[in-house]
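User: Run a structure prediction on this.
Assistant: Running it now.
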Amino acid sequence: TWRESTDTWRDGRYYWRAASVAASQSGHGEMVTGPFGSVGEFVVPPFPTAPSLPSASSNADGSVALQWAGGATRFEVETAEDAAFSTGLQVTEVDRSEARIPLRPCVDHFVRVRAVDALGRRSGYSGVQRIVSSQVCDSQQRPVLDGSRTPLRIR
């Protein structure tokens, strides 16, 4: 059995065939190659392309609805609290080009998306979308509530 990753191969159609190799019975260390078998083929599909910049709309429950353009088997949506995606990183996998992501209140978030094809190959990331918190917060980064205990929002 022989297996090699096609991650570094260019997309296209490839052909192959194999032959056996065995030590000669002459005792001189020679190798004997058997006949080649039938030709086989396989296709390496195009690598997935990065999705478009996600558009965002906020929901009353504090989550954000994201949508983007891009065809793939699934997508990885990354949200974080900084543009370097090193603080508060959350990764969500979805099987369509939209997602609803819960966000921590009183904190701005950054979102990016990448496509994953049926072979598990990942595209580059989309552009980064900054989501600015619309909640009014106190000095300890807690939501300020109105008389009915509903978080106040900036309009």
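The two ends are 63 Å apart (CA to CA).
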